[in-house]
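Journal club prep — side note

Before the paper discussion, L.F. wants everyone to see what a predicted structure for a comparable chain looks like in token form. Sequence:
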Amino acid sequence: MKTLLLLALLFYFGYNAAGQTIIGRQLVDQYPISNNAKTYGLTWLPADYNSTDKEYPLIIFLHAAGETGDNIDGLNKLLRVGLPRKIAEGWDPQAVNPVDGKNYQFIVVSPQAPTKSGWSYSYSHVKNILPDVISRYRVDTKRIYLMGISAGAGCT
């Protein structure tokens, strides 16, 4: 019985055997929002990310005020709307470029503002998040996109 309970809890919280926590098909991640503070968020990496050395375009998705949350437990609120929701539902972020006809997959980063902020992140936070993401992931720095909904759109 204990084994079944443990397995059910691991499935519910999205534990990955490689030691990385997964929520809604996305990696639980942390990003700096200032020189001395970090925030939790979700990172989507294309399915072939670990088997290639190519760079990928980046989308930073900023949530609405209703998706603020705290710690890892709060990240489930990000799955309510926008790109985190679509990814959790099974969509792999990609698009066909109408100019060259090629299909491009994207890295998607979705930082979560704390509940006490009552809002989403702003430019002052993104300017700390972006260099960190570029240093840790293979980002095509010529193709970086910022998008948000509601309060998150205020930053964009």
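L.F.'s comment for the group: Residues 4-17 have pLDDT under 50 and may be disordered. Keep this in mind when we get to the figures.
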